[in-house]
Amino acid sequence: MSIDSADAILRTGDQELALPVLHATQGSDAFDVSKLLKETGRVTLDPGFVNTASCRSAITYIDGDAGILRYRGYPIEQLAENSTFLETSHLLIFPGDLPPVDLWRAADRRGAGGF
Q1: Alpha carbons within 13 A on the beta-carbon side of 17
Q2: What is this structure's pTM?
Q3: How would DSSP label each residue in 60-106?
Q4: Helix, strand, or coil here: 31?
Q5: Based on C-alpha coordinates, what's the Rg of the chain?
Q6: Per-residue pLDDT for 2 more than 50?
Q7: What is the DSSP annotation of 14-29?
Q8: Tens digits of per-residue pLDDT, 38-97?
Q9: Quick one: 90 exposed, middle or buried, by C-beta within 10 A (0-12, 13-18, 19+)?
Q10: Beta bridge partner(s), residue 21
C-alpha cells in the first residue's frame, strides 16, 4: 500500500500500521481503522460513538450535531414536504438528480415501473 501524505501511521510497540485517509464528499475525512484489530489485536474506544462513522454511504449524509440529514444531497425536510413517495424512492434507488417533471408525469401515468 502506498502511503498518502495525509495518511496516518499508528505505532504500537514495534508495529506500524498505515491508516489511510478516506476522503468525504461532504463533512470530515476519516482514517480507515478497519485493519486495526486484525493487525494489532487492539480496538479503538469512542465513548458515546461521537467520532465514529459506522459505514460508507453514497445515499445518506448525517451530521447529528448540526441537525443535518440528506438523501443524495437533498435535505430530508425538503423531500418530506415537497416530494412524492415515487420521487423519494427514485433518489434512493438511482444515483443522480430527480428526473424532469415531464418524465414524472409520464411515469406516473404508467405506474411505478414507468421509468
Answers
A1: 17
A2: 0.59
A3: EEEETTTTEEEETTEEHHHHHHH--HHHHHHHHHSSSPPPPHHHHHH
A4: strand
A5: 20
A6: no
A7: TEEEEE-EE--SSS--
A8: 999 999 988 887 787 777 887 888 888 889 999 888 899 998 998 888 888 888 888 777
A9: buried
A10: 31
